[in-house]
Design goal:
The complex is a heterodimer of chains A (572) and B (172). Chain A is mainly alpha-helical and 572 residues long. Chain A contains 18 helices and 4 strands. Chain A is 63% helix and 2% strand. Chain B is mainly α and 172 residues long. Chain B contains 6 helices and 5 strands, in the order αββαβαααββα. The chains are: A mainly alpha (572), B mainly alpha (172).
C-alpha cells in the first residue's frame, strides 16, 4: 500500500484509540463521578464564586436554553465592538485597521456560533489582541456551549423521568477545565515545537537568497490553532488557514490536528451511550456515522488522487494527483481526507483550497456539510443526529402501526413537529440563500458594494454557482470553510451569511434539547415485546436510510446544477 | 476569561521560547545574515537556482492564499499551459510527461516551501549547465536533500527548495 494511503489509515486508527477512552472519561466527568482530573476542582469553585453561580442549582430545559442564549448574546455585543475598535486597542504591532460594521457583524456571529467563516484575512484583518480576546476566547466558549447543550440532552434520557437536568454553567465550565484547556495546552506545545510561532513579535523582514525583500507575518498562533481544531472551530490565524506553513508546519502536525478535530465529536457519541446506560445504542450511532463518513471519504480520495483530467489532456503527468491549491508536504491523499473530515465535522479549517478541488470532491464536501451529523461538530453533531433519529422513530412507528417511542418515552405530535421543522430549516436556508445570491449576481451586478456582485465569482459557469452554494451551505452548517475564491466581504454576503449562521446554529440546538426535555419529562413506559428498540442494527439502517432520503430529496437538484454539472462537462 | 485569554497564551508563549527559532519561527542564516524562514517558501526565478512552485501571492509572506481557481476554468487552464511552456523553454531535454503536477499548479498557501523530487529532477540539466557543474553531482544532491515519508511509512516525500539551493551554493 502506498505511503499516502497508509497515512490516512494510521490517522483514523489513532483517532479511535484516543477518542474512545476520552468518551468514557467524559461520561464520568458529566455524571459527576470521580475522575483523576478532580484536582482542578478548586479552580472551578473559584470561577463559580467569581461569577456568582450556584452549580448545584438544577435547571429544566427552558432554563438551560435561557442561560445559553443570554451568555451568547453578551459575547455577541462584546465582540462586535472590540472588532470595530481594534485599531485603537493595544497589541496591534502591524497597525491593522478596525473592521467595518457589516464585516464585524458577520465575524462576531461566525465565531460565537462555532462556525468561523472568515471574510477577512488573519494577517491584515485583525490584531493580536482580537485574535486572543475575541477569536480564541470564542473558540473555547462556543465549543463548550455545544458540549453543554449536548449534556443537557444526555441528562434527559439518563433517568426514567426527569424534569431537572443539571446546571448549565457546571457543564459549561467543566467542558473547558476538564477537556478543552488541558488538551489545547498539549497540542499547542506540539505545534510550537514543530515550528508554529508563539511570540508577540510583529512582522519580520528579510532579504531572500536571490535578493528579494520579503515580509513575513507572524504572531502568537500556536495556542489558537490548538483550540481551533479541538473545538471544531476552524478559523485560521493566517489567511490560508492550515495550508500555511507556519500554521501547519509538517506531516506530524497535520496528523495531530486531524486527530484533534475528530476526537471530541466521536467521544461525545461514546459518552452518550455510557451516560444513558445504553452502550449498544452508542455503538450503533457510531457505526452509522462511521459508515457515512467512509461513503464520503473513499470517493473523495479517489477523485483527488485521479488528478485533473484537463491537465492530463495537456500532457502533464497526474500520477501524483491533483495539486492545485495543495501543499507538497501533505500530498493529495491526506488533503482529501482532511477535506472530508473538516466538512462532516463542521471544523471548516482547510489544508488545501477547496475551491480548486475536483468537481466530485466538491460535491462530497457539500454533502458532508448538508448532512452535518456524521460525527458533526462539538456537541451539536449528536444533537443533529438526534433529529434524524426522531424522524426515523416516527416513520418506523407508522410502519408497524404503534405509537412511536424512544427510550421508554412516547414520541407525540409536538416532538415530531419540532423535528420536522428543524429538518426543513436547513434546506430552506441553504436553497433560499443561494437563490438570493444568484438573483443579485444576475440582476444587480452593478450594485455599489465593496465587491460588486458581477465580480464576486472567481470562476465562471457551474463552478461559480458552486462557490455561492458552498458559502451558504457552510454558513448553515456552521462549518466555516469556503470556496474562497468568492469575493465575500461585502454587505450582502456579510449580512446574509450572518443571519443564516445565527438561525442555523441556535434553532438546531434548541430543537433537539426541547424534544429531549419534553420526552424526558414524560412517564416512563417499561419495554415490552412490542417496543421499538433503537439499539438494533435494523433501526441503525433505518436511521441511515432516513438521512440519505431526506438529504437526497433536499439537495440533489442544487448539487446537480453545481459540481455534478461541472463534472460531466469535464468528461467531454 | 482571564484564564483563557491571558494565562493560557502566556504559558504557550513561554514554552515556545524553548523551541527552534524561540517562538518567532525557525530562521535560516547564511554568513550570519538571515536569508529566510525554514518553513516559508521564497521566490526563485533565476536560472541558476532550483525553482519552487507557482504562487498565487508571489511568495509575499505578509499574506497567504491559493489561486482558488476551479479545475475547469478556461483562464486557469491557459495559465497552466503558459507555465508548461516556460518550463519546457528553460529546461531543454525534458518532455511534457516528465513534468509533475506540483510544478505547474499554485499551492494552497502560496508559500509552499517544498517541491516533489520529480520537480527537482527536471531542473538538474539546466542548473548543471548554468553553474558548470557535473550533472551527476547535482543529481546526487537532489537525492540527499529529499525528505522521505514520515518514519518511512506515512505521507509523501518532498524537498525543501531553500535548503536545496543553499546546499547547491556550497557545491563546488
Amino acid at each position: 500500500m502506498n505511503t499516502e494511503l497508509l497515512g490516512i489509515l494510521a490517522t483514523f486508527l489513532l483517532t479511535l484509540v484516543i477518542a474512545v477512552p476520552l468518551g468514557k472519561y467524559l461520561a464520568k466527568v458529566f455524571a459527576g463521578e470521580r475522575v483523576w482530573t478532580d484536582f482542578l476542582k478548586p479552580i472551578e469553585s473559584a470561577i463559580y464564586k467569581l461569577s456568582g453561580i450556584n452549580p448545584k442549582e438544577e435547571m429544566n430545559w427552558k432554563q438551560h436554553m435561557k442561560a445559553l442564549l443570554t451568555i451568547n448574546l453578551v459575547w455577541l455585543v462584546y465582540g462586535f465592538f472590540v472588532l470595530i475598535y481594534q485599531d485603537k486597542l493595544p497589541l496591534n504591532p502591524d497597525g491593522n485597521p478596525g473592521m467595518t460594521p457589516d464585516l464585524s457583524f458577520n465575524t462576531i456571529i461566525s465565531f460565537v456560533v462555532n462556525c468561523d467563516l472568515q471574510h477577512y484575512s488573519g494577517e491584515s484583518g485583525v490584531t493580536y489582541l482580537t485574535q486572543h480576546v475575541v477569536m480564541m476566547f470564542l473558540m473555547f466558549v462556543s465549543c463548550a456551549t455545544g458540549i453543554a447543550a449536548a449534556v443537557v440532552f444526555f441528562k434527559a434520557f439518563r433517568d426514567k423521568t426527569s424534569v431537572k437536568l443539571g446546571n448549565f454553567w457546571e457543564f459549561f465550565v467543566r467542558s473547558i477545565t476538564r477537556l478543552l484547556l488541558p488538551l489545547s495546552l498539549i497540542m499547542a506545545l506540539v505545534l510550537a515545537f514543530n515550528g508554529t510561532p508563539t511570540s508577540y513579535e510583529p512582522k519580520d523582514q528579510f532579504i531572500s537568497l536571490q535578493g528579494d525583500t520579503v515580509n513575513v507575518s507572524r504572531g502568537p498562533a500556536a495556542g489558537m490553532i490548538a483550540i481551533k481544531h479541538l473545538g471544531t472551530n476552524g478559523g485560521g490565524w493566517f489567511g490560508a488557514n492550515s495550508a500555511h506553513p507556519l500554521e501547519n508546519p509538517n506531516y506530524i502536525t497535520n496528523t495531530v490536528v486531524l486527530i484533534a478535530q475528530m476526537i471530541i465529536p466521536i467521544a461525545m457519541v461514546v459518552a452518550f451511550g455510557i451516560f444513558v446506560r445504553r452502550r449498544k445504542l452508542g455503538w450503533i450511532i457510531f457505526g452509522v456515522m462511521t459508515i457515512g463518513m467512509f461513503l464520503l471519504l473513499i470517493p473523495t480520495v479517489n477523485s483527488e488522487l485521479g488528478g485533473n483530467a484537463a491537465l492530463a489532456k495537456m500532457g502533464i503527468s497526474q500520477s501524483t494527483g491533483a495539486m492545485e491549491g495543495k501543499e507538497v508536504r501533505f500530498g493529495p491523499a491526506i488533503s482529501a481526507y482532511w477535506s472530508t473530515v473538516t466538512t462532516i465535522i463542521s471544523t471548516g479549517s482547510v489544508n488545501s483550497m477547496h475551491d480548486s478541488t475536483m468537481p466530485l470532491t466538491g460535491a462530497w464536501q457539500l454533502l458532508g456539510m448538508m448532512v452535518n451529523s456524521f460525527y458533526g461538530g462539538c456537541g451539536v453533531g449528536i444533537l443533529n443526529y438526534f433529529i434524524y433519529l426522531i424522524i426515523a422513530v416516527f416513520i418506523s412507528g407508522l410502519m408497524v402501526g404503534r405509537t412511536p417511542e424512544f427510550l421508554g418515552h412516547k414520541v407525540e405530535a409536538r416532538e415530531v413537529k419540532i423535528a420536522a421543522l428543524i429538518t426543513l430549516l436547513s434546506p430552506f436556508l441553504i436553497l433560499a440563500g443561494t437563490a438570493v445570491a444568484s438573483f443579485i449576481f444576475t440582476s444587480h451586478g452593478d450594485a455599489a458594494w465593496a465587491v460588486q456582485p458581477k465580480n464576486w465569482l472567481n470562476n465562471p459557469g457551474f463552478h461559480g454557482f458552486s462557490e455561492m452554494l458552498y458559502e451558504v451551505t457552510s454558513a448553515n452548517a456552521n462549518n466555516g470553510s469556503g470556496f474562497e475564491g468568492l469575493g465575500d466581504n461585502n454587505v450582502l454576503w456579510n449580512v446574509l451569511t450572518g443571519f443564516v449562521l445565527l438561525i442555523g446554529r441556535f434553532l438546531p440546538i434548541i430543537g433537539p434539547v426541547a424534544i429531549a426535555g419534553l420526552l424526558g419529562a414524560k412517564k416512563f413506559i417499561p419495554e415490552s415485546a412490542g417496543t421499538l428498540k433503537p439499539d438494533t442494527l435494523t433501526f441503525g439502517l433505518m436511521t441511515f436510510a432516513v438521512i440519505v432520503v431526506l438529504n437526497a430529496l433536499s439537495y440533489f437538484p442544487a448539487l446537480a446544477l453545481g459540481p455534478l454539472a461541472e463534472y460531466f462537462t469535464m468528461l467531454k | 476569561m482571564v484564564l483563557l485569554c491571558v494565562i493560557y497564551p502566556l504559558l504557550v508563549a513561554f514554552a515556545g521560547k524553548f523551541s527552534k527559532g524561540e517562538g518567532g519561527g525557525e530562521k535560516i542564516t547564511k554568513n550570519g545574515k538571515v536569508v529566510g524562514y525554514a518553513l516559508i517558501g521564497q521566490s526563485f526565478s533565476k536560472p541558476e537556482y532550483f525553482w519552487g512552485r507557482p504562487s498565487a501571492v508571489d511568495y509575499n509572506a505578509a499574506g497567504s492564499a491559493g489561486s482558488n481557481k476551479g479545475p475547469s476554468n478556461p483562464d486557469y487552464l491557459q495559465v497552466v499551459s503558459d507555465r508548461i511552456d516556460t518550463l519546457l523553454k528553460y529546461n531543454p531535454g525534458i518532455r511534457k510527461s516528465d513534468i509533475p503536477a506540483d510544478m505547474v499548479t499554485a499551492s494552497g498557501s502560496g508559500l509552499d516551501p517544498n517541491i516533489s523530487q520529480e520537480g527537482a529532477i527536471i531542473q538538474i540539466k539546466r542548473i548543471a549547465a548554468y553553474r558548470k557543474l557535473d550533472e551527476k553531482k547535482v543529481a546526487q544532491l537532489v537525492v540527499n536533500q529529499t525528505q522521505g515519508p514520515l518514519f518511512g511509512l506515512f505521507g509523501p516525500s518532498s524537498i525543501n527548495v531553500l535548503k536545496l539551493n543553499l546546499a547547491l551554493d556550497e557545491l563546488k
